[in-house]
Amino acid sequence: MKNLSTPSRPQPTHPLAAAPVTAPEATVDGFVEQFLRNLNNGRGVALSASTPNDRYFALAATVRDYLMARWLEDVRRQRTAQSKGVAYLSAEYLLGRQLDNNLLATGLTEIAGEALAACGLDIDEVRALEIEPGLGNGGLGRLAACFIDSLATMGVPNIGYGIRYEYGIFRQTFVDGQQVEQADSWLSLGSPWEFPHPEAAQTISFGGHTETYDDDGVTRSRWIPAWNVQAVPHNYMVPGYHNGRVNTLRLWSAQATQGFDLRTFNSGDYQEAVRAQTYAENISKVLYPEDSTPQGKELRLQQQYFFVAASISDFVNLILPRDFDLTRLPERVIFQLNDTHPVIGVPELMRVLVDERGLEWDAAWAITRECFAYTCHTLLPEALEVWPSDLLGRLLPRHLEIIYRINDEFLDEVRERYGDDEDRIRRMSIIAPDGAVRMAFLATVAGSKVNGVAELHSQLLREKVLPDFDEFFPGKFTNVTNGVTPRRFVKLANPGLSRLITDTIGPGWLTDLERLRELEPFADDASFRQAFASVKAANKRALAKTLHARDGLTVDDGHMLDVMVKRLHEYKRQTLKLLHIVSQYDAIVSGRVSPAEVTPRTFVFGAKAAPGYAMAKRIIHLINAVGEVVNTDPRVEGRLAVLFPPNYNVTLAERVVPAADLSEQISLAGKEASGTGNMKFALNGALTIGTDDGANVEIRQLVGDENFFLFGMTEPEVATLADGGYHPIDFVRADENLQSALDLISSGAFSGGDGSVFEPVVSNLVHHDPFMALADFTSYAAAQQKVDALYADTEAWTRSAILNVARSGFFSSDRSMRDYIDRIWHTPPVR
Ligand code: 26W
């Protein structure tokens, strides 16, 4: 391991060198001067000769300059302070664009606009150049981004650790309505927000074998790895909102330890000369685009160990003072495991404490159990990671040994408690009967706390997913309901609503979101309702402009915007939404209802499917095919429209969410751990149609039944139906609208008369329907009629929308952080 001791501190004599770093002048002139300096000196171009990309980089550099003093001061403070911090370990961070958020944090948004205008530039043109870092798949990745924003805004010492994927989540395009993936080369023009520190690289080892040796009477083990790679940290600013704080996001990228092999090259074997290099650098090459079914690929495990080992070594060897007594590690850090993806960190810390630092096993285990906590984000059994022991043993032989010992000692405790209950032992063993390692069990045994991400989810975790562990570890299981950052998803995404809120209840709500409650009385104020409705209307026009420029799509802003944006997955039931649309369309074209009777609706979809998820890709194809027909059928007279802008991401979400009237949260009860889109929509004045699943339950409890369109089975009813044997066909026969909607698809009405194209989707529903879309259809259609009825009464709808905003302050990620601090981390903000 390279000696990473902190270099000796320089003793400056020049007053400037001794002075604390200061920010440039927060004036238009100051900003112009800094911007031109970054353009001329940073980019080496004159304003007149600058490219749009030069201007973007110069603007980004200028914003960085205004944040730098805070960052350096905060890093120094966190290094010297004895306070406990949070090391958030996540394989994904779905950050979204950085410029506006960093500008917001500095409070220089207006000044920047004026400064660029004074340079003859339009800041909107410049900001449009930013490529969002898509270093995540969906909910889990975006939640991590919201959490680090809240920790910075609350002044909690935190380092976010993750992977700097060279290629993020794929770019989605549609060819003949079908998803096509393209590599996301987000770094092709470089990123102005990252600070690489190759000098702080960590050496990460893989493969090889272990051996034991005698260490004056004590038998010790050591790992003899076969190969290694360099982990190079890239730091990103995580600015707090208007509090002068800046935390750090540290993302690791893989680099070959030894450059390309000249001797092999000179021997003419050019391939071999670079093979080691490419192999090593493959580790941080690309994000795995799965968000539910692990592929169990070796590279994925390499990625997980790579960033976790680098992060633990970085914290233990670089952040902490050299002579820090590691038995007191739990006083300085809690490693939060964002799902099981970083749980290999548990045996890694044990290896560092026992093998490298020479601690006794029990002492090391006592420390480790206090230093980790685990958040589970799923309920799908297939999403729980298990690693075959041969793969783990080959890649990380010492870690497998350590996992075996952790498991042995754990099962001894189980036997102590329950005697030889072999069935229970088999059920609870971290090592599954087939020898695979159950990562969720390891995380639960090692974690000081285990939490779900919504009340219902945490309850199901305890009762159905990990009941043996809840019984064995009383008090270990808790809940922290997810949240979203209001800075990005209200202030930045919806400036119109933000202004109206501030004009009505004053400032301060952005860091104390429960204050939105003060809006309640205004729901009964007609002029406030008017203002609120015109904000929504303006957001719809803005979305229409965006979708037209981005995808050539037209939005009829007289329509209700009925929005379903989330990853494509059968449990989220985009098919149920689609069957509703087809039944609406069918009702019109069959003459059952006249177009005039139908509430004009535009259905907006946004969804990426994991490339290997065939059924999800078929469903995307069907949604586009239905859109093709509905959008061009004169009989519909424009009463219905289906829009499916490709490549749904954070930037598009920031446009779609503020414009939505209806938020679709229609997963099968018991399947969606929480959802966070549901929270963003409620906070932006959309009404929710949803099942009692995930955080929908808490949204409905807070906004009130009368302001939420509930439908469908509850989780216990789903369990009963599943146990009793579910026959989807029964529900088809019971609902003629459902029957004719399915028949219309089977008839080939959306596939040029060729019914075979979407037959796999229809037959999967009629014969299997694993997520019971057909069972909930009738209830869903009835709830949609209630939606139409309320929407016809604009005042009543707007009143309900205002109450949704007023009563959704609970869903701030700041509140989530307070819950984590109180229940799990005990890392109070550092004033
Ligand atoms: C290994 C493959 C894989 C990758 C990612 C399996 C599972 C995941 C994530 C846990 C999936 C995910 O993003 N889960 C979502 O997490 C959100 C944040 O807590 C929740 O709001 C969503 O309900 C949950 O689906």
TrEMBL record:
It is an enzyme of class 2 (transferase). SUPFAM superfamilies: UDP-Glycosyltransferase/glycogen phosphorylase (SSF53756). One of its GO terms (molecular function) is pyridoxal phosphate binding. Its cofactor is pyridoxal 5'-phosphate. It catalyses: [(1->4)-alpha-D-glucosyl](n) + phosphate = [(1->4)-alpha-D-glucosyl](n-1) + alpha-D-glucose 1-phosphate. It holds the Pfam family Phosphorylase. Keywords: Carbohydrate metabolism, Glycosyltransferase, Pyridoxal phosphate, Transferase. The modification N6-(pyridoxal phosphate)lysine is found at K680. The keyword Nucleus does not apply. GO terms for biological process: glycogen catabolic process. Residues 1-20 are annotated as: Disordered. Its EC number is 2.4.1.1. It comes from the Bacteria. One of its GO terms (cellular component) is cytoplasm. Allosteric enzyme that catalyzes the rate-limiting step in glycogen catabolism, the phosphorolytic cleavage of glycogen to produce glucose-1-phosphate, and plays a central role in maintaining cellular and organismal glucose homeostasis. Phosphorylase is an important allosteric enzyme in carbohydrate metabolism. Enzymes from different sources differ in their regulatory mechanisms and in their natural substrates. However, all known phosphorylases share catalytic and structural properties. Belongs to the glycogen phosphorylase family. NCBIfam families: P_ylase. This is Alpha-1,4 glucan phosphorylase. It comes from Microbacterium marinum. The lineage of its organism: Bacteria, Bacillati, Actinomycetota, Actinomycetes, Micrococcales.
